[in-house]
C-alpha cells in the first residue's frame, strides 16, 4: 500500500513537471521584447533570457490559483511583475535607464487612469486594488 501511494505520488510529480514545461518560443518572445525595448548588449541578452524564463515559470506556477483564489492569484502576479522589473533594472546601464523609467511612467499613468475611472464608478477599495493587480 505504501509503495502504491509512493508510486502514484512520483507519477503525479513527474507528470506535473512535464506539463509545466515552458515554451522556448514564449521565452524567446519575452526576451526579444526586453532586448528591443531596452537595446540590450549581447551580455545583457543572456540575462534577459534568464529573466524571461523565471517570469514565465513563476506565472505558470501560480496559474492554478486563478480559478481557486482570484485575489491571491492577482497579488502573486503583481509580485512577479515587480520582481521582474527589479531584475531588469539591475542589469541596465545608465544609458538604458531612460527607456526603463519611461515604461514605468506609462504603467503608472495607466494605473492612475484605471483608479480614477473605477472611483467614478463607485468601486470599493478592494475592487480597485484587484483591478490594478490585473492590469498588464
From TrEMBL:
It comes from the Bacteria. This is Uncharacterized protein.
Amino acid at each position: 500500500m505504501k509503495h502504491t501511494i509512493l508510486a502514484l505520488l512520483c507519477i503525479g510529480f513527474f507528470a506535473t513537471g512535464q506539463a509545466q514545461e515552458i515554451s522556448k518560443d514564449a521565452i524567446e518572445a519575452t526576451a526579444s521584447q526586453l532586448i528591443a525595448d531596452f537595446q540590450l548588449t549581447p551580455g545583457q541578452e543572456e540575462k534577459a533570457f534568464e529573466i524571461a524564463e523565471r517570469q514565465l515559470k513563476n506565472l505558470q506556477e501560480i496559474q492554478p490559483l486563478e480559478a481557486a483564489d482570484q485575489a491571491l492569484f492577482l497579488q502573486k502576479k503583481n509580485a512577479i511583475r515587480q520582481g521582474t522589473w527589479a531584475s531588469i533594472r539591475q542589469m541596465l546601464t545608465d544609458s538604458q535607464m531612460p527607456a526603463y523609467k519611461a515604461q514605468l511612467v506609462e504603467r503608472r499613468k495607466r494605473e492612475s487612469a484605471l483608479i480614477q475611472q473605477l472611483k467614478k464608478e463607485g468601486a470599493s477599495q478592494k475592487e480597485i486594488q484587484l483591478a490594478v493587480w490585473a492590469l498588464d
